[in-house]
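ok trying this again, last paste got cut off
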Amino acid sequence: MGLYLFRLPDVGEGVAEAEVVAWYVKPGDRIEEDQTLVDVMTDKATVDITSPVGGLVTAIHGELGAMAPVGSVLVEIEVEGAVVDAPAAEAPSEPATPAKAETPAPKTAPSKTPANPPVPPPAASANHAHGDAPLAAPATRARAYALGIPLQNVPGTGPAGRITPQDLDAYIADANAPAAIDARYAARSGTTEVRIIGLRRRIAENMQQSKRRIPHFGYVEEFDLTELEALREELNANRKAEQPKLTLLPFFMRALVRILPDFPQINARYDDEAGVLHTFASIDIGIATQTPGGLMVPVVAYAEARDLWGCAAELARVTAAARSGAATREELTGSTITLTSLGVLGGIAATPVINHPEVAIIGPNKLEERPVVRGGQVVIRKMMNVSSSFDHRIVDGFDAARFIQALKRHIEHPALIFMD
């Protein structure tokens, strides 16, 4: 028998370490060649790591969320034959703590006095010995539980101190008895610890970096989408079988294509460490997308080269890839400006966080019918508030307002989107 030390391989592109995000084996497991051992996440992608050998897992190294350097030992595998790797002594001098086979029990928070403390037993009213479970029929127990009455407090008059229904009635009716607590409002205690790892940790780090490094400037404007909604309904009703159903976002994308050439400092990424603003001729629109693993931003690249239907089709493709976990690194990087929308959950307004190192993000909110004044008359129109955030180091408030007003003009008069 020999001991095979499986080390974290070089996953390419200059990656020096990776985060352990999921284990598929534990000590004592017998594995086959090419069986998945662990998932690791780099700053570019999540990678499945498989075993080059079969054998018995004797140890694993790296708790979930730990950073493992390339070349460090991840798994020790007992194999047939001689030792096929360097002895364990050649592993890093401070290996990661072996992952536990079971999740440790959550720590309990320090004891707190609940809002409705349990009723203390009367000094000498109950005839149950300390620590003894009171005797009672199941129906009596159920009724006491529903009323929030500890049976230990109820004096029993039945055989051997058994609590009868009459005893419970007498306890409730006793004017000197403490008030019963409705079990629906009983105080709860305890704390659950959830370690933030993997994609969720990357999202948290990116959001923190964005808010720490970018002075956000917010701007909210009201858009009238009545005409655009009529056009969207008409186009969807007469679309071809191969054409995707149009949502609002493709119209916003095409409007951005029309106006961003006049605002090059907004279609940009700012390298604040080098002090360099990179403006782009291409318009690569990130779409903030909620996935089972957390928030991701797939990119509709070269939106300027796509018509309305093309934007809709590519939007559907990249967001579906993100949600299924099939999106490539190229599909998740390189955006120059981001759209974020919660659809019907959009609310009245939002404060979107800029996708660092971009300098702007646009957030359509909920579309709803509202009474508004037009030509001195109160009419019902389909209205939406559009939220936006800008990097105030790059975009002045005046330019941000001009940009949003230009976007408003194109959305409210959608024919402008299609004009040369």
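PB: full thing came through this time. The chain has three domains: 2-90, 113-188, 198-418.
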